[in-house]
Amino acid sequence: MGRRPKWGRPLDGVLLLNKDTGMTSNDALQRAKRLFFANKAGHTGSLDPLATGVLPICFGEATKFSQYLLDADKRYSSTFRLGVVTETGDCDGETVDISDASHITLDNILNALPQFTGVIRQVPSMYSALKYQGKPLYKWAREGVEVPREAREITVYKYEVTDFRTNGAHPEVDVDVHCSKGTYIRSLAEDLGKLLGVGAHVSRLHRSMAGPFEQDNSISLQELVELRGDKEADVLDHLLLPTDSPVESMAKVLISEEMGDYFKQGQAVMSTQAYRYAEEGGMVRVCLDSGAFLGVAELIEGQLAPKRVVVSR
Question: pTM for the whole thing?
Answer without folding.
Answer: 0.90
